[in-house]
Structure formats: structure tokens, C-alpha cells
Specification:
Helix content is 58%, strand content 15%. The protein is built from 22 helices and 15 strands. A six-stranded antiparallel beta sheet has the order 3-2-1-6-5-4, with helices on both faces. A hairpin with a 2-residue loop joins strand 5 and strand 6. The longest helix has 42 residues. The protein is flat, with a radius of gyration of 33 Å.
């Protein structure tokens, strides 16, 4: 593969701008390359640009899928409808790159529609806007149940303009607006908008993406309404239980079922044990399924008949976890229906307990890492036993990573303390998931998160730091900065080294933030001579090899004198004329050697920062030679 082709691979690897892909062709033309070579390079450039465009498209799609996944996750743990809707509007605005996004809902009682959530809005009039049904672009979307987009709102005559709406839109300064319907079945309950204060064209993919967010928003609203219905149904169930308790026979039967289910729970029974016990009580066959609970969920907690089967939804906190299905008993009396419903409630408790156990395991991982950092003199045998229970490979080399969310400052009226606390919780949650996936450990510490992760085959600490920064940043949709230590071999055999490595990782993290490299991951080896100062191991040989190793190797292979030329060049104030006097060679020889050095070290080797590192490496290399030479 030619040097120029390698250049295109390097440009793709570091995500260079489009303009950078012209450089290899220009350099080849300047060096006198023939037409065939230039044509081949041009073809390679076009191929590289296509690959770059494909990579950009995939990254964009990954970001969109990540946002949709995060939205679905928010819905799974729905507690606050307003918070979920705000998250949907914020993600829609960020992914579409608009200046403003907002969501309106229909008010059937008042016969109009009102603004529910806004993001990026600056006008109080706009945020409090109420408009009649059928008015404005939103009214057109609600009437047709189809998305509409306008490049210039005030010049668009497809919808009804009113003074109230136009005044509010003019106050906000909006020009281009995209609106998609919030639909539940065939009913439109509101509209989700994305808007800019300049003329722009919304692409078809952007319209589809906003439609996906609108579908999530509609589900959130429907889920909140169903949760209220479920609570009401539970209240009705309690009243029904009062009536049942008036009959002694019913009380005895309900008590028997309760005792049996309670015994199952106390003795560690599972979901299928509950299904088996209820099968015996009801005289049919009960099975748990994660699907098929739609009709039962809409029944508000009651068991419903579907054909010859009875179905009771298993749900908690507005989240449907599955259903209990009874086969073989088409005619159930009200007592047996309540029995099936109670079994569904117990099943939901068991499923929540299993989920809580997973969260407890995350806490245990954090406690083990805290002990390694704070009490390294503890019994190593016990530490290894705890690690084994967590499926952690204590013999593999590990890296300690310090991570923090680095976000630009918010507005003055934000609750900074509360936001930072929420950031730490989100970062810890994402880090513990990553640690469990990689069989490592994670803990919240010093305003951020610390991880102890094993190195993969051929993986370096720097690569692991960059991968962790990208992974956590992509999950949280926030820049996460990660500093890494040098590898720690068998950390449970040397627990005292874990705390030392954590301090090195923190120093690396602080250096990245001071160097304005927020959102990146690095180890000391990435930071040149600054990393040499930060690293606990002082890897001088590694620093020299990374900085001038290619020149040293070239001299050894070819018998040249490039290292001595570099020394003389810097000693002569980077003057080729004085360098040739120092070396007693012709100035053209100096120029040729410097050109070769530039090819080995890269085009920026004479920049102030690189020159300083190279001179330090030359001094350390000379000292090493002086020590090893007899």
C-alpha cells in the first residue's frame, strides 16, 4: 500500500475535515507524480470521501438510535410525565439541530390547544400560547394527522393565520417550523414541533425522526393516564376485598391463597413457582408470559377473559412486565378472578425484587473497589473471594480510570448543586453498567466515578481510556473526560497499587481538563513530557521511544546520523546554516536529513510543543547511552 493511500486511512481514522483529503493529491502533483499516479490518487480520494460520508451517516444514525433508546428507557421508569416530555423535546431539538422545540396538547374540555413543554423558547407570550382548534400550522397537523413543514411561516398560506398566533410566533422570531402529530390510535392529542429562527429545509429523515419522538411522547402521556386508571382500579379492588371479607368462606379461601403465595416468596420461590401454585388452586394451567398483556393492561389491573383463557397483567409503576395466563378454566367466579389478580401482583413484586438484586450487585462492586482504594491492607484472600463472586478476573492486568462529566456552564438560575448531583448519579449508573459488562468494578468518588477495568488482549491503557470516554459520553449524551493509570498487574495481589494508580488517573484527568480536552480519554503516555511528569512509573524509555524512536531505529537500520543531526539542529537555534558548520557537511546534506526526519516524525515536528518534547527526548536518550556505554 502506498504512502498516500495510508494517508487517506489516517485521515479516516482521525475524522479529518473534507478539505484535508485534497492534500495527498496536491503533494503528489507538487512532487511531479505522473498522470496515472494522480488518477489513482484521485480515485482513492473519492473512495475515502465516500467512506467518510458513510461513517458520518452511521454515527448520526447511532446518535439517533441512542436518543430513542434513552427515551424508551425514560418511559420504562416513568415517574414524572413532565420530566419525560421535557427529555423528549430536548433530544428532538439536539438531534435536529434546531433553535427551538416544543410540544402542545389538546384540551377537549376547553376546545382549544395549549403549549405543554418548550425548549429554547425566549418569549413568555409564546410559552403561554393557547389557540383554537384548526388554527395555525399545529391546527393543520391536528386536522390531517400528518406532519407539515414550512420553510417560511409568514409566507405560507396553507394554514389559517390568526393575530394571536402570528404575534406569538413573531415574538419568538421563528421562521422555519416542522410539526408532527401526537397520536393515540386514530386520535390526535397534540403536536410536537421543531423550529428555527432562520429559513431552512427539513430533510425527510429529520421528519421521520421527529415522528419517532412524537410516538414516544404519545406513549408517555398514555402511560401516565393508564397509571392513574390503575390506581383507581386498585382502589376499586380494595373496596371489592371489603365485600369479600364479609363472607367467611371467601375469607378462608383468600387466606389460603395468600398464605401459599407468601410462603413461596419467603422461601425464595420464583415466578414459575407462583404460576404452579395458582394452577393447583384454580384447577387449570397458569403460565407467565412477557407478551400478550395488552388487553389486560388496559383493563386497569383486573383479570380479563380472552377466548377460553383469563389474563391478568403483571405491572408495577406504570411499567407492564408481562402477564399471567390461565388456561382450561373459561368460567371463573369473582373470587377466582381476584386470586389470579393477586398472583399477578405477587409476580410483579418478585420481578421487582430480582431487579433490585441486580442493583445491589452494582453496589457490591462499588464497595469492593472502595475497599481496594481505602483499606488495601485487608485480607487478600477475602478480597479475591468477593471478586470471584462478582465474576471479576483478579489475575488479569487492570487499569484504574477516573471519569467526570464536563459540561459547559449553565444559566445563572439553574440549581448547580442539584444538577451536579444528578450528573454524578447518571455517570455512576452508566459506569456500573459498563463495569458489569466488562467484569470490572466501579464506584462514585471525588465528585466523579472511578473504574477498575481489565485490559483486553493487545489493548493499552490509553485505548481503554478513549473507549471508556466515548462509551460513557455516548450513553449520557454529555462529554465525559477519562484519565487512565498505567496497567496494574493482578490488582488483588497488590491492592496497595490500586490507590496509587487512582491518584495517577486523577492527575491525568486534571491535566486533560486543564488542557481543554474535555470529553476525551487519555493515559499519561498520550500527554508527552507532561504525561512523563504525571505518571507514577516515570516510563522514560517509553517516552523516548514514542517521541524519537523512529529516528533512532532508522539510524540503526541504515547507519545514518539523524539523531546527531537533530541534536546539532536544535543546538544551533534551528538554523540549517549553523548546523552544517557544526556537522562539517554541506547545507544540502542538512536539508536532506531534516526532510527525512520530518517524514519520520511528522510534519509538525518543529512546532514549539513538539520541538520541546523532542529536545527533552534527545537529552534523555543521550543520558541513557552514556549510562549503558562502558
Amino acid at each position: 500500500m502506498s504512502h498516500e493511500h495510508v494517508s487517506y486511512l489516517e485521515l479516516l481514522t482521525r475524522g479529518a475535515a473534507t478539505e484535508a483529503y485534497d492534500r495527498p493529491v496536491l503533494l503528489a502533483r507538487a512532487s511531479g507524480a505522473g498522470p496515472e499516479a494522480l488518477a489513482e490518487l484521485e480515485e482513492a480520494k473519492q473512495l475515502a470521501l465516500r467512506v467518510r460520508a458513510e461513517l458520518e451517516g452511521r454515527r448520526r444514525r447511532e446518535a439517533e438510535l441512542s436518543a430513542l433508546f434513552a427515551t424508551a428507557h425514560d418511559l420504562a421508569g416513568l415517574r414524572d410525565l413532565d420530566a419525560v416530555l421535557r427529555a423528549i423535546v430536548q433530544r428532538a431539538r439536539a438531534l435536529l439541530g434546531t433553535e427551538c422545540a416544543y410540544l402542545s396538547l389538546n384540551d377537549p374540555a376547553a376546545g382549544d390547544t395549549y403549549m405543554r413543554v418548550t425548549e429554547g423558547s425566549v418569549s413568555a407570550r409564546f410559552q403561554q400560547l393557547r389557540l383554537g382548534m384548526g388554527e395555525g400550522l399545529g391546527g393543520l397537523v391536528a386536522q390531517t394527522a400528518r406532519p407539515y413543514v414550512t420553510d417560511d411561516y409568514f409566507d405560507d398560506a396553507r394554514f389559517q393565520h390568526t393575530r394571536t398566533i402570528d404575534t406569538a410566533v413573531r415574538d419568538e422570531g421563528l421562521v422555519a417550523i416542522l410539526g408532527v402529530p401526537l397520536s393515540l390510535g386514530s386520535q390526535v392529542i397534540g403536536v410536537l414541533f421543531a423550529a428555527d429562527r432562520r429559513a431552512r429545509v427539513f430533510e425527510r429523515e429529520q421528519v421521520a425522526l421527529l415522528g419517532s419522538f412524537a410516538a414516544h411522547a404519545a406513549v408517555a402521556i398514555d402511560t401516565a393516564n393508564l397509571l392513574a386508571e390503575t390506581r383507581s382500579a386498585l382502589a376499586e379492588l380494595e373496596r371489592a376485598n371489603d365485600i369479600i371479607r364479609e363472607h367467611s368462606g371467601v375469607i378462608e379461601r383468600a387466606s389460603e391463597v395468600h398464605d401459599r403465595l407468601s410462603e413461596l416468596v419467603l422461601h425464595g420461590g420464583g415466578v414459575h413457582d407462583v404460576a404452579h401454585a395458582v394452577s393447583e388452586v384454580l384447577g387449570g394451567t397458569v403460565e407467565f408470559t412477557e407478551e400478550g398483556a395488552g388487553t389486560a393492561r388496559r383493563a386497569g389491573g383486573h383479570a380479563v377473559r380472552e377466548g377460553d383463557d383469563w389474563v391478568a397483567a403483571v405491572s408495577a409503576g406504570g411499567e407492564t412486565l408481562g402477564a399471567l395466563v390461565l388456561h382450561g378454566q373459561p368460567d371463573l367466579d369473582p373470587v377466582d378472578q381476584r386470586t389470579l389478580e393477586r398472583a399477578a401482583l405477587v409476580t410483579s413484586l418478585l420481578l421487582l425484587a430480582r431487579r433490585s438484586a441486580g442493583e445491589a450487585e452494582q453496589r457490591v462492586r462499588g464497595e469492593l473497589l472502595d475497599d481496594l482504594l481505602d483499606a488495601p491492607d485487608r485480607d487478600r484472600r477475602l478480597l479475591k473471594e468477593r471478586a470471584a463472586r462478582l465474576r471479576t478476573d483478579s489475575e488479569a492486568p487492570h487499569v484504574v480510570l477516573a471519569a467526570r462529566i464536563d459540561r459547559a456552564g449553565g444559566t445563572a438560575d439553574q440549581d448547580t448543586g442539584g444538577r451536579e448531583s444528578a450528573d454524578r448519579q447518571r455517570l455512576w449508573s452508566a459506569a456500573t453498567h459498563l463495569a458489569a459488562t466488562r467484569h470490572g468494578l466501579a464506584s462514585a468518588r471525588d465528585g466523579g466515578t472511578v473504574l477498575l477495568l481489565p485490559l483486553g488482549p493487545g489493548e493499552s491503557a490509553a485505548e481503554l481510556a478513549r473507549q471508556t470516554a466515548r462509551g460513557l459520553g455516548g450513553t449520557l449524551r454529555e462529554p465525559v473526560t477519562v484519565g487512565a493509570s498505567a496497567p496494574v498487574r493482578a490488582p488483588l495481589d497488590h491492592p496497595d497499587q490500586v490507590a496509587v494508580a487512582y491518584e495517577e488517573a486523577r492527575r491525568c484527568l486534571d491535566a486533560l481538563r486543564l488542557l481543554h480536552r474535555a470529553g476525551q480519554g487519555a493515559a499519561a503516555e498520550d500527554l508527552g513530557f507532561l504525561g512523563l511528569l504525571l505518571a507514577d512509573g516515570r516510563d522514560i524509555g517509553g517516552f523516548v521511544d514514542r517521541t524519537v524512536g523512529q529516528v533512532v531505529a532508522y539510524d540503526r537500520r541504515r547507519g545514518t546520523d539523524l539523531i546527531r543531526t537533530l541534536d546539532a539542529y536544535f543546538a544551533s537555534g534551528m538554523s540549517p546554516a549553523r548546523t552544517k558548520d557544526e556537522l562539517h557537511v554541506h547545507v544540502n546534506t542538512v536539508a536532506q536529513r531534516l526532510e527525512r526526519i520530518g517524514r519520520l516524525l511528522g510534519p509538525d515536528w518543529q512546532s514549539p510543543a513538539r520541538a520541546l518534547e523532542i529536545q527533552l527526548a534527545l537529552r534523555l536518550h543521550a543520558l541513557a547511552d552514556a549510562v549503558t556505554t562502558p
